Amino acid sequence: MLKLLFLFLMGSGLPVAIAMAGSSLIYILVSGDMPGFAVVHRMIGGIDSFPLLAVPFFILAGNLMNNAGITNRIYNFALALVGWLKGGLGHVNVVGSVIFAGMSGTAIADAAGLGTIEIKAMKDHGYDTEFAVGVTAASATLGPIIPPSLPFVIYAMMANVSVGALFLAGILPGVLMCLLMMVTVAWFAHKNNWGGDIRFEWPRVIKALAETLVVVVWPLAVWALITKAGTQPQLTVALALVALFSADKFFGFQAVLPIMTPVLLIGGMTTGLFTPTEGAIAACAWAMVLGLAWYRTLSWKMFVKVCLDTVETTATVMFIVAAASIFGWMLTATGVTAALAQWVLGFTQEAWVFLLLANVLMLFVGCFLEPTAAITILVPLLLPIARQLGVDPVHFGLVMVLNLMIGLLHPPMGMVLFVLARVAKLSLERTTMAILPWLVPLLISLIVLTYVPAIGLWLPRTMGM
């Protein structure tokens, strides 16, 4: 009855959060097994979680970066690094999304932030609008895979796993997805005989490579000083940051400081400087330093608007989590989760078969539900089965989030699809057709990451998380 009520309310056009909370309340009132205030009690209990404190701060950090003019710096850096390759702006699109993913944490912010710049630039350089939209949509899925990631935080709270482990687990899969997308761009460039979009100039490329080298060497040097030399972490990081800002000023780097956002976040968590929740606050502080003090591209008036937008987005996310909490609890109380587990385990005892079925289900659900709601519904249903079959919960979280990100590219509820259709001024039909070829690298990534868990788990295990 609970499932039928939920499907009926969803079919009537109600938002998914209201459908979940409403169906639970109606079921409780009709059954008479417990008082109605249990709904409110469970909803409050669902958001009374310390890890969830990271949600508003990650949203704020992404909004600050998105509104502080950082996107232009990222685009210019990616252009200097790979714009001279064949199909140059396609590669720039992918590399720019990898960098921006380390700040926004959501696919929609990536598509709306960099997408506006990238699609216009590609159209101005003669690329088909459909190709520009397709590569932008595919690269936007990197946002929640490369840390920080809002869906990972929600999953970690629901599954009771480490946020830091999930963040580390997303790095190598993000690199794999980036490489497959760049291979796809190269195939399109070869097929259409495209050249580069800027001239190959050694000074420009060397400067971009120098920035990349700084991003790689700086955290390794700090790590070595703290772990090998035994220096004080706080003092070492403070002096290293002074050196980093000095180098940025002296050499006129484009994007070193913005790229350092995920580096500082992961480094701080692995060295024990702060928890994931404190890391979200640190990301906000870093974004404010860059926007208000260093680049001075963020005014106080804009800062207030960003804060108000963050409050609105946070309220929406928290209400979905609260509604899904009572719905998930009711699914467990009415025996739905146990019955599903019994059916699946009766059907197969093989982990690979379960993962195949789970992927199909999550891809389907991702086309209809917003990722936060989908995670909060699917975790109580699928994770217990995954644990019984020996599937690592961190690996399963990575697979779940990637499935749901692919779902954002599909009608009827794909938000990235809607955003890019509006940005590119294309119909939903043409936008959908433009995205279809890019499902190939995404589905290849999904298959590889599903059945080669070591790609995602190597870094967390190496770091002891």
Give a description of the structure.
The model has no long low-confidence stretch (mean pLDDT 84). This protein has 465 residues and is mainly α. 78% of the residues lie in helices and 0% in strands.
Features:
24 helices; mainly alpha; 465 residues
Q: Give the radius of gyration.
A: 22 Å
- Name the overall outline: globular
**What is the number of E strands?**
0
Q: How large is the share of residues in beta strands?
A: under 5%
Sheet/helix structural class? mainly alpha
Helix content: over 70%
Order of helices and strands: HHHHHHHHHHHHHHHHHHHHHHHH
Largest sheet: none
Number of H- or I-type helical stretches:
24
Terminal CA distance reads 41 Å
Low-confidence stretches: none
Average pLDDT for all residues: 84
Briefly summarize what is shown:
The protein has 465 residues and is mainly alpha-helical. The protein is built from 24 helices and no strands.
Secondary structure layout:
Blueprint lengths: L1 H10 L4 H16 L5 H11 L6 H14 L2 H13 L5 H17 L2 H18 L4 H12 L9 H10 L3 H7 L1 H22 L9 H26 L5 H19 L4 H15 L5 H19 L5 H34 L2 H12 L3 H16 L4 H18 L4 H15 L7 H10 L3 H8 L3 H13 L2 H9 L3
